[in-house]
Amino acid sequence: MRIISGRWKSRRLCSLKGTTVRPTTDRVREAWMSAIGLRMDEMTVLDLFSGSGALGLEVLSRGASSVVFVEHGRRALQVIRANIDVLGAQAECAVIEDDVFRYLGGNRDVFDVALADPPYRTKASARLVSCFLEKPFARQLWLEHRWGEDIDTPDVARTRRYGDTALTTLTA
Question: Rounded to 10 degrees, what is the CA torsion of 149, 78, 61, 26?
Fold first, then answer.
């Protein structure tokens, strides 16, 4: 896995090993970044269900001012911290070890963009959309989920399909 573009272009990242992990492919990450576009300068970003941290580090590489990573998995947290260290991005990153929904329940900040890649075959995507609609924690939520997953999104949501993966954008 590598950073696709920006100041850390082509830098390799550590990834999680195992069959229970589903990292975002380079193709989907590139599509995601292209969809966000050039509006990344000085953005504050919330990376939920961070995994390896690749999504948050990609936007940081492209000009975001800061990223808060929220992850609960012990192995994933080690990988996120290792990737931040490899890039020397400690000053621009905060790593929160917590359940995403517990964190959101106590969070008072509103970020420019929230990136979320919850585990497939759970109710996390639908629950996250519900949380966002009830109390927006970002100006936009970019959600990666399984194509065909039953998520009750409002008409204002925009979904793009990439094979078995879908990217849905919601605006507060």
Answer: -40
CATH of domain 30-171: 3.40.50.150
**143 forms bridges with which residues in the sheet?**
116, 168
Write down the domain spans for the chain.
30-171
Q: Which of 132, 102, 98, 105 is nearest to 116 (CA)?
A: 132
Q: Which amino acid is it at 117?
A: D
Q: How many helices (H) and strands (E) does the chain have?
A: 5, 7
Contacts of 15 (CB under 8 A, 6+ apart): 1, 21, 23, 52, 54, 79
* 94: its two tokens: 């905060």
Q: What is the pLDDT of residues 76-126, one digit of tens each?
A: 999 999 999 999 999 999 999 999 999 999 999 999 999 999 987 788 998
The CA distance from 82 to 170, in Å, is: 31
Average pLDDT, 10 consecutive residues per value, the chain (172 residues): 90 77 63 65 93 93 96 95 98 98 95 92 89 93 83 70 83 86
